[in-house]
Amino acid sequence: MSMSVQEAIRARRTIKDYRPDPVPRQLIDAVLEAAAWAPNHHLTQPWRFIILEGVARLPLAELRRALKRRELQEKGLPADQIEAEAAESGAKLLRAPVLIVVACQQVGDEIRREEDYSATAAAIQNLLLAATELGLGTFWTSGPIAVAPETNALFGLDPSDRIVGIIHLGFPAESPSGGRRPPPPTRWIEPREVPKLIDRIDRLVAGTRP
Ligand SMILES: Cc1cc2nc3c(=O)[nH]c(=O)nc-3n(C[C@H](O)[C@H](O)[C@H](O)COP(=O)(O)O)c2cc1C
């Protein structure tokens, strides 16, 4: 299947139901290669991908279950309710045959860390669009499991690495519909505003309020 970028952007939708079929290795390699073409300042390539396929998903699902259990225990819920909710939470990570944990290295000053985080998000979007073109479904998740220090520790990531997404990947078993709400307003700077804006600069740079 060949798709224009415009078509892939619109065809990519969050897929939550997947066929159990494994994803051929060359398709996984292809989406990772597309991810690596994302813009990244100073070519830091800050992203790190961890592929969890089949049984390799189980430790992450089990960690999610354990974290949910701990959270609910702290709330003092009844034991059977805790177990049911914790099991459901863990099972949610087993919907697709492949999970890709996308981590971002966070080194250097604040600007570099921000840029690297943004570049990693761009890499994820590349990955999702490439997957769409290849007929694969994706689901970008984050949430508590992505920010839990235990997740970094489980996979031997540095404590400062940030997990930007846990991407579900597989052949879709659903075709989601539904579009987008009208976008928030766009501001165009009008030519007539330009002199006033330029006039502000000296005061801004001097640190006085305009
Ligand atoms: C950073 C990020 C985290 C997300 N985390 C979740 C999540 O934890 N659970 C969920 O149901 N959807 C999650 N989503 C998916 C969005 O809810 C989804 O993209 C949105 O509803 C639009 O639907 P679409 O992807 O089909 O266009 C996440 C998306 C992003 C970008």
Q: What is the H-and-E element order?
A: HHEHHEHEHHEH
Our Rg estimate from Cα atoms comes to 21 Å
What is the CATH architecture assignment? 3-Layer(aba) Sandwich
Count of strand segments? 4
Hetero groups in this structure are: flavin mononucleotide
Quick one: overall form?
A: globular
Ends distance = 55 Å
Total domains: 1
Number of helices: 8
Helix content: 40-55%
Brief summary of the model shown:
The chain has 210 residues and is an alpha+beta fold. It contains eight helices and four strands, in the order ααβααβαβααβα. It has one domain: NADH Oxidase, CATH 3.40.109.10.
Provide an overview of this structure.
This protein has 210 residues and is of the alpha+beta class. It has one domain (5-206): NADH Oxidase, CATH 3.40.109.10. It contains eight helices and four strands; from the N terminus they run H-H-E-H-H-E-H-E-H-H-E-H. The chain has helices at 5-11, 25-35, 58-74, 79-91, 110-133, 144-147, 149-154, 194-206; strands at residues 47-53, 98-104, 137-141, 162-170. Helix 2 packs across helix 5 (110-133) and helix 3 runs antiparallel to helix 4. The model has no long low-confidence stretch (mean pLDDT 96). The structure holds flavin mononucleotide. Residues 13-14, 140-143, 165, 176 line the site of flavin mononucleotide.
